[in-house]
């Protein structure tokens, strides 16, 4: 085919502009910009992973290809509900240049509860049955309970060996209120406490919200705080 009849493929103007800007940027400036992007990604992930007694380490992996300049990088999590420990994807919005994506590995070391002894199915967890172990949270099962208070009062649906982390799907709430039971509801506002009696319309375990019919016939919603005891905070 003659040269003058060949189709000429032209790259998009925005890509040409980015490539020209990248080539024009001095190597020192390119390195400084990359450091800024990594610093902001580390800051975002460290904030997401922070918690009492936690030691957080963030390693940002270099991009597999050379990227165009990124002015005022603003990192974000594409999946905000994703559990942070382990390898995660992070988006970075660049002023006037769209978004890019980087990979990072987050390591969190902290205390987490394990069984102090072998436990049988049907046992209700108490503080004496558990102890704390320090380690990498990323090595735990994804549904592991990370706080002792989240497990106490729950019933085991299956046996667990000594030293086992607590799988969330092996815990079930123990009903402290039965439907039809007479209950007391406490309403708190600072140091002021008022109480009233009623009838439970639902079963409920510790911390669960259920419906109550007051003696006057009003339907209320309150949170289970003890045996046949519920609370409402104002």
From TrEMBL:
Pfam families: ChapFlgA. GO terms for biological process: bacterial-type flagellum assembly. Belongs to the FlgA family. Involved in the assembly process of the P-ring formation. It may associate with FlgF on the rod constituting a structure essential for the P-ring assembly or may act as a modulator protein for the P-ring assembly. The lineage of its organism: Bacteria, Pseudomonadati, Pseudomonadota, Gammaproteobacteria, Pseudomonadales. Residues 110-172 form the SAF domain. The keyword Signal applies. This is Flagella basal body P-ring formation protein FlgA. PANTHER family: FLAGELLA BASAL BODY P-RING FORMATION PROTEIN FLGA (PTHR36307). The keyword Manganese does not apply. Its main location: periplasm. CDD domains: SAF_CpaB_FlgA_like.
């Amino acid at each position: 085919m003659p040269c003058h009849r060949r189709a000429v493929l032209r790259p998009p103007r925005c890509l040409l502009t980015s490539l020209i800007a990248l080539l024009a940027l001095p190597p020192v400036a390119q390195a400084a910009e990359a450091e800024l992007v990594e610093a902001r990604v580390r800051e975002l992930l460290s904030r997401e992973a922070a918690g009492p007694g936690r030691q957080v380490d963030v390693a940002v992996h270099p991009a597999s290809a050379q990227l165009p300049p990124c002015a005022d990088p603003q990192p974000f999590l594409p999946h905000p509900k994703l559990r942070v420990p382990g390898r995660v994807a992070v988006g970075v919005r660049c002023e006037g240049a769209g978004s890019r994506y980087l990979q990072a590995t987050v390591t969190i070391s902290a205390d987490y509860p394990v069984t102090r002894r072998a436990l049988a199915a049907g046992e209700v967890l108490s503080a004496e049955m558990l102890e704390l172990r320090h380690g990498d949270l990323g090595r735990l099962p994804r549904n592991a309970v990370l706080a002792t208070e989240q497990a106490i009062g729950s019933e085991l649906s299956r046996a667990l060996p000594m030293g086992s982390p607590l799988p969330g799907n092996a815990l079930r709430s123990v009903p402290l209120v039965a439907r039809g039971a007479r209950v007391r509801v406490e309403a708190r506002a600072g140091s002021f406490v008022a109480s009233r009696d009623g009838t439970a319309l639902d079963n409920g375990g510790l911390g669960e919200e259920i419906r109550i019919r007051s003696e006057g016939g009003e339907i209320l919603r309150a949170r289970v705080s003890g045996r046949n005891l519920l609370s409402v905070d104002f």
